[in-house]
Amino acid sequence: MHQEIKTKLKGKTILVVEDDQISAEYLKEVFEEKGVHLIFANSGEDAINLVINNPQIEVVLMDIRLPGINGYKATEEIRKIRKDLPVIAQTAYALDGDHSKALAAGCVAYISKPIGYNELLSLILKVLFP
């Protein structure tokens, strides 16, 4: 299974929007040996600009709690720019309404922190290869 995941993800570009350095390092580690190109943003504003300037981005991992523009608003703006770009919401503060708010903002999926390795890879594959 590990080799199959590596083969499918190799060459893919993922935008990671995360203001917490430890979480960003963890995500870097998850994708490190899979040939995935990661682009990092630490704010909603940066995420929007990176999507505008990097058409090769294939999926966005969007933290919800961000400084400035939060993840919901950033997702709404990204969906205006690239309607087809899948955005996966991620948050450590999973409250009852967060999942529905994320979907309403245009996210295609939602994952709670701490993010499990296998859960994340399964979700990324599901989004990239529906």
Structure description:
The protein is 46% helix and 18% strand. By secondary structure, the chain is of the alpha/beta class. The protein has one domain (2-113): Response regulator (Rossmann fold, 3-Layer(aba) Sandwich). It has a 5-stranded parallel beta sheet with strand order 2-1-3-4-5, with helices on both faces. The mean pLDDT is 92.
Give the full name of the CATH homologous superfamily. Answer: Response regulator
Largest sheet: 5 strands, parallel
Kindly provide the name of the CATH class. Answer: Alpha Beta
Q: What strand line-up does the widest sheet have?
A: 2-1-3-4-5
Question: How large is the share of residues in beta strands?
Answer: 15-25%
Rg from C-alpha positions? 13 Å
Question: Total domains, how many?
Answer: 1
| Helix proportion | 40-55%
Structural class: alpha/beta
Stated plainly, the CATH topology is called: Rossmann fold
Q: Based on the structure given, which CATH architecture is correct?
A: 3-Layer(aba) Sandwich
Distance between the termini: 18 Å
The overall strand count is 5
The DSSP helix count reads 6
SSE sequence, one letter per element = HEHEHEHEHEH
Unreliable spans:
none
Instruction: Please state the overall shape, judged from the principal axes of the Cα atoms.
Output: globular
